[in-house]
Specification:
heterodimer; A: 798 residues; alpha+beta; seven-stranded mixed sheet; B: 155 residues; Ubiquitin-like (UB roll); DNA polymerase, domain 1; 2 domains; five-stranded mixed sheet; 5 helices; globular
């Protein structure tokens, strides 16, 4: 383990050259013969009855091959609790509701046809805030539940509640208490490559769909269910995932547009492609949930946390995606970030006529951490304890079991806190910049680091196939979406098997050829796939050495004889060439098989490919293909108590931020960011830096500028001019990355998952720095200049 | 209105009959079947479609195809040398972690190419300004800026 050759190295991504040359093929670049272009007609109201849909003009437009609505296609139910439909009938519940779609020979014709479809609506009163949705006389978004039973209110039947200890009793004992109301906005994942798919049927009515997803195998299941609803029960779906232009959680649900492409492909008998425009990506995909959080935390006189009480109200929007399960991840920091014995957490998710929400990187954790870490600074202030010291007092420790039943094994929280404080010059700067409106702040994170058992299976499969040339195909069910799974998997496979990374090809993204995987979510991709690869590599090594037992010495003999032919002066050493060796005598590194006992003997070395060829290319030959299915040692949480060891290991991190506030304009200028993360072990230097830098900048966008603005359910800023994400000149400050390597025993080579954490604590770290700089607490994101100025005005009033 | 436009594309003389409302990006992708220039927004906001026209970087998604008549167009494919050899800028992106999901990469590289055509030794600030019209959601730009800096050293 201490002599890792490739793991932790700076080797480039294997997919980088093709991407840098414009050769990687995204859904936008794919075409199929005789392909049609699909286009969707969306609702013109947030809440309305559909009175009539007139498609007659669109039907007649030359080039149009199909026009479909909810009235001329089978009902396909979709979503986490199946409260959504591919095409809507009866009424629309949000602006993005799909009411009709066309397939045409040209995208421009498809667009024209969409405009020719006339829909008559009867507008209904809408509900646009979660508070309004809870009012007794609120209009019902859904009159019936998915089983057809009448509904009485707008509460989504996915309640989350977690209780540990006795918060009321702890409140009585607390010396200091801080209370606050915190809010987070809708934000858009903003993948550079928009979503899209191509659906096509073969002549046996099996479906192939090329689509942008993070869950090819769960999607296969969803689409098979849709086929059954279309009268094609027993038919199968093959999901093929093209190169993804980012995903950030958007691919964790199957989407209406995919089902619409399937319906159009079936109806026309031709492949149908639907790619969302940037505007559709904003308005017709699901953003990250907004939250409203009431929090109270209390500590004793020494600053030890006694309790944490959190009540959350989530605006689900009109339908329910897997996003409704994000509270299960919010529960991790709420129950377990910093040691806190008494916890109460309750969340209510409600339907509104706003756009429905889904997962985004962090899966609820950023929203929860925003409230906890902002409020923690308030509590430290109440207690008169330096926020860094306060965090050190309450930090997580190794080998601990939290109130939620999470088994913390390795834990670098202390090291992360210390690294952030040191790099930020905390002692010199904290509390000393008020005069110049400069401040430092920090916030920590707690997240799953060893996958998360969201489904009954948390497994991932890897097939390792060795060919005659010593090449290794590592076939995985995981999804590369830019995060670097292929890089990590290449390095880990090479390391575990004993070959060089250039011999490894990662094959992924096809349900017909790749082994099952539950999905690339929860920062689990590299953690689970590399663990599976290590298992498969062990099996492959065993087989290689079994073959070597027979073929090693004869190959050595042949090599030496060959050498003798070339060089008559060469003396063939006196070895026992007839000897069949024991498989346990061999080792392999960098494609070369050698004897453990004599690793330095220059004569006793044979290339892997020679052994493989000798064993394969003959009568009654053999080949090496191994597989492994890794399922981590974690648990599903008990739906009743919400307790259970969700992940095989947990990750920690602390980010520190220094800011300067312009008191005239309210503008916050970031001066320095420190991101200290317990990563277990660095698998790939490039990939981990990319994940953390990228996460920090997304986190800063969440903190300072990103907001998906709506007016009565309609998105107002569906483009990058009005929806501001960071551009390169905005990153005019240093970001220091500190990777704390705790070498976790469950992790591949000790690594933990690192996909999401980079953005989790950034926003509260910024808010805490702003408090240090100007003494005002901003409690709603994003922290705009307007909010700063308003808070300063309020403060001046006293 | 349709018109035959002639221009050089990645060093070759080419021509195409296009309609007046077509943008350069669509002509490059649909007519010439190039996959390097990407459509990320179609309205000149994200820079994924960046190509060089007479050496200057433009958003090809809002650049009328008629306008390139008689000009020279270079896409990211045009930077490749014989034998699939990457251009030093491309190579630098590969070696320095400038690539993640890769969707913004061709556009980034073309903006970098335009910068390095003009300025052989750009400061960090000049690099950031040069790619200010190229959005990226994965990298936080840090390793992209490093890639361009190191490319400048290599060239």
């Amino acid at each position: 383990m201490n002599q890792l050759r490739f793991v932790g190295s700076n080797l480039p991504r294997p997919d980088a050259p093709d991407k840098a040359a414009g050769r990687a093929l995204y859904i936008h670049d794919l075409k199929r013969p005789s392909m049609l272009y699909g286009k969707i007609k969306y609702s013109e109201y947030a809440h309305a009855k559909i009175k009539h849909i007139d498609t007659s003009k669109a039907d007649k437009l030359p080039g149009v091959r199909a026009v479909i609505t909810g009235y001329n296609t089978p009902e396909i139910r979709i979503g986490f609790i199946r409260d959504n439909f591919a095409l809507k009938r009866g009424k629309v519940r949000q602006f993005r509701d799909e009411v009709a779609a066309v397939a045409a020979t040209d995208p421009e014709i498809a667009e024209e046809a969409i405009d020719l479809i006339k829909v008559e609506y009867e507008e209904l009163p809408g509900v646009f805030t979660p508070e309004d949705a809870l009012k007794e006389d609120a209009p019902l978004i859904h009159e019936e539940d998915p089983r057809g039973r009448p509904r009485k209110d707008n509460i989504v039947p996915v309640p989350w509640k977690f209780v540990s200890g006795d918060v009321e009793e702890a409140k009585k004992k607390a010396a200091y208490i801080a209370q606050g109301h915190f809010e987070t906005p809708l934000i858009q994942q903003s993948c550079m490559g928009t979503a899209g798919c191509i659906a096509e049927f073969d002549l046996q009515n099996n479906l192939t769909i090329y689509t942008k997803t993070q869950i090819p195998f769960l999607a296969q299941n969803d689409f098979n269910r849709a086929l059954a609803a279309m009268g094609l029960k027993g038919k199968n779906t093959r999901v093929i995932v093209p190169t993804l232009g980012g995903s950030f959680g958007t691919g964790l649900d199957t989407h209406a547009y995919e089902y619409i492409a399937i319906l159009l492909a079936y109806k026309t008998g031709r492949p149908v492609k639907i790619v969302l425009t940037r505007e559709e990506e904003f308005t017709a995909l699901s953003p990250r949930q907004p939250t409203k959080t009431d929090i109270i935390q209390g500590c004793d006189k020494d600053g030890k946390l006694l309790f944490r009480e959190i009540r959350m109200l989530l605006d689900n929007g009109a339908y329910t995606s897997w996003g409704a399960t994000t509270p299960s991840v919010m529960m991790l920091p709420i129950s377990s970030m910093y040691r806190v014995p008494n916890v109460y957490y309750e969340t209510t998710i409600v339907y509104t006529n706003n756009t429905f929400c889904q997962a985004m990187r962090g899966y609820g954790n950023p929203q929860a951490t925003w409230a906890i870490e902002s409020n923690l600074d308030d509590l430290a202030e109440e207690a008169g304890i330096d926020p860094f010291e306060f965090r050190m007092i309450n930090r997580n420790v190794p080998n601990d079991i939290t109130p939620m039943g999470l088994h913390i094994s390795t834990c670098g929280h202390k090291e992360c806190l210390e690294a952030a404080a040191e790099k930020l010059s905390w002692k010199e700067k904290r509390g000393k910049g008020r005069k110049v409106a400069r401040g430092v702040g920090m916030a920590s994170l707690f997240h799953v680091g060893g996958s998360g058992r969201v489904y009954r299976s948390d497994g991932t499969g890897v097939i390792m196939k060795l060919d005659d040339f010593g090449n290794v195909s590592v076939i995985t069910g995981g999804v590369e979406m830019g995060q670097g799974l292929n890089t990590a998997l290449t390095l880990a496979s090479a390391e575990a098997l004993g070959v060089t990374p250039d011999k490894v090809t990662v094959v992924w993204g096809d349900t017909a050829t790749c082994p099952w995987d539950v999905g690339t979510h929860a920062s689990r991709g590299a953690f689970t796939a590399c663990n599976a690869a290590i298992m498969a590599a062990e099996k492959a090594r065993k087989k290689v050495f079994e073959l070597a037992a027979e073929h090693f010495m004869p190959r050595v003999k042949k090599q030496l004889e060959k050498r003798k032919k070339k060089d008559p002066d060469f003396e063939i050493p006196d070895l026992d060439y007839e000897r069949v060796r024991d498989p346990s005598e061999f080792d392999m590194k960098e494609n070369i098989i050698f004897l453990k006992e004599e690793p330095g003997n220059p004569f006793l070395k044979v290339a892997l490919e020679e052994i493989l060829r000798a064993a394969h290319f003959k009568q009654e030959g053999t080949m090496i293909v191994t597989e492994a299915f890794y399922d981590p040692c974690n648990e599903m949480i008990d739906p009743r108590t919400c307790k259970g060891n969700l992940s095989a290991t947990y990750i920690f991190g602390t980010q520190g931020v220094e800011v300067e506030v312009d008191l005239e304009t309210g503008r916050v200028k970031v001066l320095h960011v420190v991101a200290a993360h317990d990563v277990g072990r660095v698998l790939s230097q490039q990939a981990i830096k990319g994940q953390i830098y990228g996460g920090v900048i997304q986190g800063l966008g969440y903190a300072l500028c990103e907001e998906y603005k709506t007016d009565k359910g309609r998105n107002l800023n569906p483009n990058f001019l009005d929806y501001k994400i960071f551009s390169a000149p905005d990153v005019d400050f240093p970001i220091d990355i500190e990777c704390i390597e705790t070498i976790d025993q469950e992790g591949p080579f000790g690594a933990k998952g690192v996909g999401e954490p980079g953005l989790v604590p950034t926003a509260p770290a910024v808010a805490n720095a702003i408090f240090d700089a100007i003494g005002v607490r901003i409690r709603s994101l994003p922290i705009t200049p307007e909010k700063i100025l308003a808070a300063l005005k309020e403060k001046a009033k006293g | 209105m349709r018109k035959v436009i002639s221009f050089t594309l990645n060093g070759y003389n080419v021509s195409a009959e296009v309609e007046s409302h077509k943008m350069l990006l669509e002509v490059l992708r649909e007519h010439f079947e190039l996959t390097g220039p990407k459509e990320g927004c179609g309205q000149g906001e994200c820079g994924a479609c960046t190509v060089l026209v007479d050496g200057y970087n433009v958003n090809s998604c809002i650049y009328p195809a008629f306008e390139v008549d008689g000009k020279s167009v270079v896409t990211v494919e045009g930077l490749l040398r014989e034998g699939n050899k990457l251009h030093p800028i491309q190579q630098s992106f590969v070696e320095n972690g400038g690539v993640q999901c890769g969707f913004c990469t061709p556009g980034m590289i073309m903006s970098a190419a335009a910068l390095l055509n003009e300025n052989k030794d750009p400061s960090e600030e000049e690099i950031k300004r040069a790619i200010s019209g190229n959005l990226c959601r994965c990298t936080g730009y840090v390793q992209i800026v490093e890639s361009i800096k190191k490319a400048a050293e290599m060239i």
